[in-house]
Amino acid sequence: MSELNALDQYLQQSQPNHLELLKRLLRIPSVSADPAYKDGVRQAAIAVLDTLATAGLETELIETDGPPLVFAQSPPVPGKPVALVYGHYDVQPPDPLGLWKTPPFEPSERNGNLYARGATDDKGQMLTHVLSAAAWKAVEQQLPMQVKFLIEGEEEVGSEQFEAFLARPEAAEKLACDVVVISDSGQYAPGQPAITYGLRGIAYFELHFSGPKQDLHSGSFGGAVNNPAIALSKFLASILDEDGRIQLPGFYDSVKPLEQSERTLWNELRFDDEQFAQQLGVSALLGEKGYSTLERRWARPTFDIHGLWSGYQGEGGKTIIPAKASAKISFRLVPDQSPQEVALQLQQFVDSHTPAGVRVEVIDLHGGPGVVVDPHSPFIAAAQSSIQTAFGTAPVLIREGGSIPIVAAMKDKLEADVLLLGWGLDDDGAHSPNEKFKIADFYRGIRASTHLWHHLAEVAG
Amino acid sequence: MSELNALDQYLQQSQPNHLELLKRLLRIPSVSADPAYKDGVRQAAIAVLDTLATAGLETELIETDGPPLVFAQSPPVPGKPVALVYGHYDVQPPDPLGLWKTPPFEPSERNGNLYARGATDDKGQMLTHVLSAAAWKAVEQQLPMQVKFLIEGEEEVGSEQFEAFLARPEAAEKLACDVVVISDSGQYAPGQPAITYGLRGIAYFELHFSGPKQDLHSGSFGGAVNNPAIALSKFLASILDEDGRIQLPGFYDSVKPLEQSERTLWNELRFDDEQFAQQLGVSALLGEKGYSTLERRWARPTFDIHGLWSGYQGEGGKTIIPAKASAKISFRLVPDQSPQEVALQLQQFVDSHTPAGVRVEVIDLHGGPGVVVDPHSPFIAAAQSSIQTAFGTAPVLIREGGSIPIVAAMKDKLEADVLLLGWGLDDDGAHSPNEKFKIADFYRGIRASTHLWHHLAEVAG
Predict the structure, then answer these.
(1) pLDDT recorded at residue A432
(2) Could you tell me which of A47, A208, A428, B99 has the fewest CB atoms within 10 Å of its CB?
(3) Which member of B276, B305, B317 has the closest CB to residue A204?
(4) Distant-in-sequence, close-in-space partners of A302: CB < 8 Å, separation ≥ 6
């Protein structure tokens, strides 16, 4: 373990320099959603490329129809596995600007945190892996295994260019790896690091219920026609039964029951329902009967309405039967459920539930399957050791309710395992004003990553 | 009947002059909803006052905190009943201006119609009664009974000032009458005049369902909390049962069953469901089980949603659990139902149907009771004769699904009967671009009104 000792010592000495490198990256306003920041987005790509080159990696800027992809790799190490670090250099818009205590693109240290847009999502977390590679190069002259980097610039707006690149024939070879490493999520709780081994999928739709060809006076016509807003309400109400179970035909056919070992593990996390409800400002939690809150959030499919609109939304009372009523809805999926199947099930449900006098249009907006990896894999074991050393606590194994479609795409295309190692905290404000990253967690992340290459290299390639 | 013959002859000769008077009034842009038209509103009041004074009536401009009320009266005729004509000189906004074929305040004759904002609603219809009084004065020197006029300037925005005036102690005496005459509605069909003897009431509410204190990420939180948009949908869906019956507790307690004579009468109108559905652009009509379309529209209470809003309504898919979901809803009421009682019933229903984890706020926006008058009254008989002569067809007795709260207020305050005599047509576009009034119907209305004073005078006062 002497090489790890030397590396740890190097990391300790390099902390001021690492923080400076992060600040430099955070000063670049790389907002991918807003064309006004186009220069900043490119500048951030170049900065990441430079840092990777300085770390001694072979680098390449892959041009696309959007922001470039930053690719880098260390030399192959025969007999050792190959890792691919995925991350992104673009950030969320900083709005609403008025709510920031210090400017979003002027990194500011307060109470052990570094405040700036992108601090945790994902510049800070992504940089931990870049700097760990730099540490190996500085101390040991080379990494103990081949590590590749693919850092994109459109994650916050849908990863369109990276997805297109993934579909290209050369992508499979260039990105070939045994495990994809991603740090773009969070710890389970402050001081309790986690490894996320599952993500939910999603199937997202827009519904349009149409009735009369124009709005009608509800006095003269009320009682004559089916009101599309009533028809929509009745339809949406019929999707969930009294127990919170989704009523689409065949919806649960491919849903595997939870493993008892997972339930036991999560039960040991002693999730506090009452505190959670208080945090969210609700008097009670609610969801599918028979499952704990964590089970419902992480590993059970759910239905949600994201938007509703119909008729008159202004001041006072307008007396119309609206011609149209619409909703945005989605189903979160668990692994083995396919968004395409759910789309068919929804259409079937619509067909059998469309009442007299309305027409229903279903628009399939987007979807992606869920991901789950084997929590008993040697990669997970390697990550556990690294994190335990760096954070002083064994990480818990959790799943996440959210969906990262690109993760499923990479897993499928590259036939690789996935390690989701989140260094962030729930209150980091990833998409909110005053985004932050705990500076100690930044250093711990670099150390965990540095140790990770050592432990992964011990796994048979 | 020689006096009616002389009057008819006078009316015949006066047609060009009457049309000119209407055009003059229509040129005044008296839009009550828009402060920019304040001068026009006052100018219209003065023009109506002038026309009434020219007709030889005693006139008075009653100032209010808004547009003035125009009051006029002919001398009392002992032993004869007293009528009060109610109408309004204000008009709807002309928007959208681009859809008018000729400017809204430049009356234009085409195909036997006069096009202008206010042509039918209500300048044209109201003027028929003013001009009938003028005819009596010109031909017979005096009206055969006392006729009063109360023409207001805020009908299109809620009649606030007139309602306030009605509540004043002197109003009962000033407006004292046996029957209120209103022409602000329509014929049953082209060539089929109607007397409306019933209007529905209304109870209008806004509902706000609140869940978490802010929008939540539906990936991380989906399955944990009650989604307010789902809770709202389920609540709205529960208001109507499968037969279209309203489920508020006690809602039907004060609803009288329809009289067999009414059902027979309306059945004889041979309302064409299929043609109606086609007109509205729906594949089928729908409403409370066991009632015909006319019965449902005119004489049964109904529930409608007028507006829905929650969460994200923009392009694409945003994955949130919205913090709030809202709706505008109303119940149309039949006579004997009170809006206040319905408000209590709704609150009760909310209290017993609020699910876990959401808060519900009910805002009572406005309400007014329905009105129904005895279709066998001598006033109705007098109107029937007059209309039969003027239109060449016996009027049908109908009810209207809409609500005119001020009518119920006058009926209650003045303890008078009400005659709703509509000269308009369904396609007059009362609140739409290219509003029109059929010129022949304008003349027929004046003649019917002229005869009405004769026949009403024969009813014991």
Answers:
(1) 85
(2) B99
(3) B317
(4) A246, A287, A288, A296, A331, A332, A401, B218, B222, B223
